Amino acid sequence: FQVDEYSSGTHVGTHIDAPCHFAKGRWCVDEIPLHRLMSHAAVIDITEKAEKDRDALVKVQDLLKWEMISGHTLDGSIVMVRSGWGKRWPDRQAYTGTAEFDTSKLHFPGVSKEAAQWLVDNRNIYGLGIDSLSLDNGISKDTMAHKILFDKNVYGLENVANLEKIPLYGATIHAMPMKIGKGSGAPTRIVATFPRNLIYYGKK
Predict the structure, then answer these.
(1) What is the residue range of 35's domain?
(2) Domain annotation covers residue 198
(3) How far apart are the C-alpha atoms of 81 and 58, rounded to whole Å?
(4) What DSSP assignment string belongs to 184-204?
(5) pLDDT for 159-174, tens place per residue?
(6) Which end of the chain is flanked by fewer CB atoms within 10 Å, N or C?
């Protein structure tokens, strides 16, 4: 038989950021209600912006555009930001903007604080994921997207893979984090399911 030992940080690879990561008194990994980890996906596509600007941000207009195109509301969804960054993994230079361990040189897409604030003020989303290193973009100094979302118990999913393979709407996300007691984060398996005949909208 085979026996293995496993050791890892809780915020590496594809992982969940529990709200308590930045917001004291909010849910930790083991406290997030299960129904909030399984819901319909709302894929916000910013690949064209990110191709032109490594520090591109999701803006409020991007969220409203998704609702207009899909005919659905973001309420009750798990929002997934598709920037195209997942294809750059595991090239450190391409993915983070630097081959060095220097946070001042980080460059990758993220979510604007205005978009985060609009979401918590106007919609009831469960989580927000992205195919880059962090919810806040690489040049962020205040991590406000994290702080705004987590204060309202909206969790984050980072380093999400294969977002280019799912439709802008119509998929269901199943986020399955390792259940770490009082953990601020955890390695997470994310599965998306959707009908094979679903029409694809968006850039591949």
Answers:
(1) 15-193
(2) no
(3) 8
(4) SEEEEEEEEE--TTPPP-S--
(5) 999 999 999 999 999 9
(6) N
CATH code of the domain covering residue 155: 3.50.30.50
**Token digits of residue 99:** 């081959």
Neighbour tally for 48: CB within 10 Å:
12
- Quick check: is 200 in a domain? no
Residue 57 has pLDDT above 50, yes or no: yes
pLDDT for the residue numbered 30: 98
Quote the number of domains for the chain: 1
pLDDT at 196: 76
Global pTM exceeds 0.90? yes
Measured CA to CA in angstroms, residue 197 lies from 77, 171, 193 at distances of 21, 12, 12
The DSSP string of 15-76 is EEE-GGGTSTTS--GGGS-GGGGEEEEEEEE-HHHHHH-TT-EE-HHHHHHHHHHHS---TT
Amino acid letter, 96: T
In the chain, the percentage of residues whose pLDDT exceeds 70 is 97
Does a structural domain hold residue 36?
yes
* 168 touches 40 (CB < 8 A): no
